[in-house]
Write a structure and sequence with these properties.
Helix content is 51%, strand content 0%. The protein is an all-alpha fold and 85 residues long. The longest helix has 18 residues. It is flat and about 50 Å long. The model has no long low-confidence stretch (mean pLDDT 82).
Length: 85
């Protein structure tokens, strides 16, 4: 499972995401249920919080760009197939 934060500026895109949620392919989470990410604009952070964020990022497993593109390509095909496109 991966959690993404999106800003949706198009009504059709929102409807597409809502269709995916109805099919249980994704879950739409209210913004007040998501922890604030230090990578997003917002209030200034303390040096301690910034260092902790860096430590968490360094401890997160990584994958190659080639692998990530391949995985997302497969997921995209499955999602589009589920929408009937």
């Amino acid at each position: 499972m991966h959690t993404l934060t999106l800003e949706i500026s198009d009504t059709r895109a929102l409807l597409t995401l809502q269709q995916l949620a109805k099919k249980k392919a994704i879950k739409i989470i209210a913004s007040d249920e998501v922890d604030d990410s230090l990578s997003l604009p917002g209030t200034p952070v303390s040096m301690a919080a910034f260092k902790q964020w860096i430590a968490n990022a360094e401890a997160t497993p990584t994958i190659s760009l080639k692998t990530a593109k391949s995985e997302w390509g497969h997921r995209r095909k499955r999602l589009l197939h589920g929408l009937g496109k």
